[in-house]
Amino acid sequence: MSSPTFDTTLLHEYASNQSIQRGREYFQEGAVGALVLRGHQLQADVAGSQPRPYRVEIEFNAEDVAEACCSCPYNYGGWCKHIIAVLLTYAEQPDQVEVRSPLIQRLAALERAQLQSLVLELVERVPRLVDLVETALTLLERAPDTLASNSRSVNHATTGTTPRPPVPVNIRALRQQTHNLLRSQSGHWDNGYDNEEDVVSPDLMELVEQSRPFLDAGDGRAALDILEAVTDEVRKRWDVLEEVGLQPYDFVNEITSFWVEALLDPALSAEERQRWIQTLAAWEESFNSEGSYFIAAAQAAAQQGWDDPALNRILQGETVPGGLWGDEQPQYADNITQARLRILARTGQDEAYLNLSRAEKHHDLYALHLLKLDRVQEAIAVGLEQPLDQGERLELAQALYQRGEIEAAFQVAEQGLQQSDAVAMKDPLFSRVAEQMDDFDLCDSYPQGALSAWVRDRAIEQGQTERALAAGIIAFREIPRSTAYRQLETLAGAGWPDLQLKLLEFLRTATCASTETKVEIFLRETLLDDAIQAVESHYTASETLARVMDAAIKQRPEWVIAQARQQAEPIMDGGQSAHYEDAAKWLRKAKQAYEALGQKTEWRTYLGALCEKHQRKYKLMPLLRML
């Protein structure tokens, strides 16, 4: 099987200008460790701002990247710089990639005794794996009981059922792991490591994630044992962690959903829930205001349980004036409702699930559950009649499409496209705000763009060109990309010249179009002045600026000279020896522009002045002499 390929010109389809620039810097600095390709999965470690490198995993499909993820906390939309660095290394240094067989193939060849020996050896080498292995084994051993418990109803589980004993968990070891991890993080800060990405440590969340299998198995007690151990250790060091620059409040926000679901375990008695309320109250002072959301949500879940009269009426399908929360719905209401819905789904209480999701206006979950129950027409009606955000609408449309409900899927998706007209975003006030957001990489048109792109691509599959074109125009306006532009050229056919003029006019003022996208399209259409305007108006990656300069050497040589000097001279004047080669590259473009003007003498005069000025910089002078 041949190795998957990746075209680096597509990076701007997935990442911001800043991420690409930083990613290329990481690539050039050699921050990417060994690359390992197993089948269609690429893995690599990238040295970042933390002592421990970030792990990047990329899954390829037949044509492109299917999924890319990184253990860093970047969440501002698109790929992070670490993913960019790995893909650049993969594409430009293929000899650095080690190709291996997929792990599942290698494990399949082992005998039982060999597998046991392998696990034991790994545990011996990495002691922290012991808890993970024991947790997995416990779940395997309890599989029959899990199936039985999941078949119970919530009401039955809260009355007359003997509580299940907690699953044995090595709490002492878990606390020690958490303690050691927190101590190491605070130590890294004290030793001078920067914290440019305010992180919830991936390692810390790995410890919390050990509770997930127990939650899925319906064992809230075991999950609470784990959550208490990790959370309490963080609580004890809260003030210290804040003092050294870590952000522990991010952690408690992350764990809220875990705690809420565990405290809603129907097997917990009223006495147990009350004890947890008291424990949380005792913790509140330690967490101060930063942890108030977590404490309030967890206490509310424990207080309500499944006994609340209004809740039980809702679960039975009754209409309750004011709903479950009355006039003022708390911020954590969705956390609690979603946890209840997960439990109802797990225990097979379909009607209760539908009643609660409808009452709490989780229309997306309501519609998707209707589909699961083969109540297709009802699900379609929800999609057409109820307010859904773009992400929810896309998920429902995809589910309908997969079931063969093609036209209904299109109608549900297009309902969202009709509700948010991209042209309406030309309001002057909005434009100013959007431009400011774009300057800080905060402009996010992804939900609307993803929805319209999905309609476009599925319509192409179905041979519905007119529908694909209409959706494609919206997709381009929301997320301008060169590939989307070329796709529209194909779809428009004879109508392309008129559409092209409109798209180019839009692109000139589009605040959320990357400079790279503008440059690629403008140069493709030989609109050099527009390309120059694009790189002069916003931050531009050096590669993009160089591309425009190369295109402008013959037509705008004076501009090329000015840009080359602007890039090269600060490097030389500042003695930035690590970037002298970059300065030489810019000066080489200046030389070409001088020659295009027929000014070789002027070039030699300028170069001579540079050599005179920087004659003591022994690393720079050989590069200047080569010019």
UniProtKB/TrEMBL annotation:
Keywords of this entry: Metal-binding, Zinc, Zinc-finger
Ranges for domain SWIM-type: 54-91
Give the signal peptide, or none.
none
The record's GO CC annotations read: Cul2-RING ubiquitin ligase complex
InterPro entries on file: Znf_SWIM
> Cross-referenced Pfam families, in alphabetical order?
SWIM
Molecular function as annotated in GO: zinc ion binding
Domain of life, source organism: Bacteria
What's the protein called, per UniProt?
Answer: Zinc finger SWIM domain protein
Taxonomy, top ranks, is: Bacteria, Pseudomonadati, Pseudomonadota, Gammaproteobacteria, Candidatus Competibacteraceae
